[in-house]
């Protein structure tokens, strides 16, 4: 059976590793990112791929820099016939890509050439894409630009979070790899070059992406929230006498019907419209967003209504959320 050096880091990469082992592939080495501090306690935590590999008794390698000569020598010593990667997290140099006789393949979580980059799942949800998928591609020394070996598509659910979609795509990636790898290794597949003119990009998330800007329409805010759950999460900057306080939003959704009183003058975005039995309804750039589950700073997760009950000064018409200068020409406003 083919010798595969497997490279991956997050939970998305675990099912493909499990699939290779279950199918009888020889995996002499698993390469993953180093353990990193996690949480408020900054506890050193192994990545999910390492945890799985250790359970299977596999040899695990965690170089800080995959470009270092020592790292290349370690992988060369494993004598792989092919390298398979899935969300590994470092750019692979040409010398490494050319090391195995069959080259290197990557399981990318988008329908390439769409959403090249580090956050394809989150960016697809943010953009309101109706579908996404997984692409098995030949790796080249350019980000996610290699020829396509195979693809599989799936619809994005209207309420699906990035966490739920990632779990589904991980299983699709496993199945795509196992269905395709034998034919690729035997030379029965001719990879198809990507259409560079159609390429789009999915840059890594930043702290600015996590901020819910209520100048935007409620539907756009809902997409952004879904794209950020469960990690890193979305927050709203709450106005208060002690300055801006971030409140993490665990769930919210566009308010149904006409949450704004048509007979009343429009209110600024981020204004409390009313306290509903199951949440807090705030005006947005268009429509309204109902906060359902939140986590105030330094406190536990709780229902938004419970949070509001602890704020007796909150009344309809009170502006709660800090917003930037709203720009009606913002491309997200539609």
Task: Break the fold down into its secondary structure elements and pairings.
Blueprint: E1 3-8, H1 14-22, E2 26-31, E3 36-38, E4 43-45, H2 48-55, E5 60-61, H3 69-77, E6 82-86, H4 94-97, E7 104-108, H5 120-126, E8 131-138, E9 148-155, H6 162-185, H7 207-210, H8 218-228, E10 234-238, E11 245-254, E12 272-276, E13 279-283, E14 288-295, E15 302-303, H9 304-309
Parallel strand pairs: 1-2, 1-6, 2-5, 6-7
Antiparallel strand pairs: 3-4, 7-8, 8-9, 10-11, 11-14, 12-13, 13-14, 14-15
Predict the CATH topology of the largest domain: Rossmann fold
Q: pLDDT under 50 segments (min length 5)?
A: 328-334
Q: What distance lies between the first and last C-alpha atoms, to the nearest angstrom?
A: 53 Å
CATH class wording of the largest domain: Alpha Beta
The CATH architecture of the largest domain comes to 3-Layer(aba) Sandwich
Q: Percentage of helical residues? A: 10-25%
- Mean pLDDT over the residues: 92
Per DSSP, what share of the residues sits in E-state strands of 2 or more residues?
15-25%
Query: What sequence of helices (H) and strands (E) makes up the elements?
Result: EHEEEHEHEHEHEEHHHEEEEEEH
Mass-distribution shape: elongated
Radius of gyration: 23 Å
Largest sheet: 7 strands, mixed
Number of continuous helical runs = 9
- Secondary structure tally: strands: 15
Query: What order do the strands of the largest sheet run in, or round the barrel if closed?
Result: 5-2-1-6-7-8-9
| Overall structural domain count | 2
Q: Can you tell me the CATH superfamily of the largest domain?
A: Formyl transferase, N-terminal domain
